[in-house]
User: What shape does this take?
Amino acid sequence: MYSDVLLVRHGESEANAAGRFASHSWDPHLTALGRQQAETLAFQLHNAPVRYVVTSPLARARETIAPLAQDHHLTPAILGDLAEVNLGKWDGQHLKDLEQADSDSYRAWRRDPETNPPPGGERILTVGRRVLVALSKFVTESDPPGLTVAATHADCVKGACLVIMNADGPATRKILVPNAGQVLLRRWENGYWSIILSPIYWS
Assistant: This one.
């Protein structure tokens, strides 16, 4: 027995378009492109065996999953642990400002976000563990099993993949999760997770 979870990064947000970090200080919405990406996701998964949809509580994730949920006549479950990584003192700042400052903390974070999280922020593997724990609890309690689509954030997707692969912090720089990017995970009944390479479209 197993349950499949399709992790989806939210569509382009106002923060993405502005080149700003956003975790807790503000809750940006999707841009016009982001809304188009959300509609495309719903189209891609129209024939998928979606049984559940879950989402981060943040607006950009909820707006991304909304067209899919409506298409499948489902009400999204909000899971707080799918929320964006805590960026600490960098929350709300422009990325270019941090790059130009070229501080020791920024350069260390770029090398290894696990060992060197943002000042007052969260470690990447901590993010991945909380995401997988939340999803494990959800799919275990959901009966019968089926495809769960989960709208979340880039570092949540990266962190979950790193935990599954037992990889270290620097490996996160080798994972690219674009807006509306997807990865299919499988949770086995013994609690182990796998990463599944699968076509995006279902027919």
Summary: The beta strands are 2-9, 50-55, 77-78, 147-152, 182-188, 193-196.
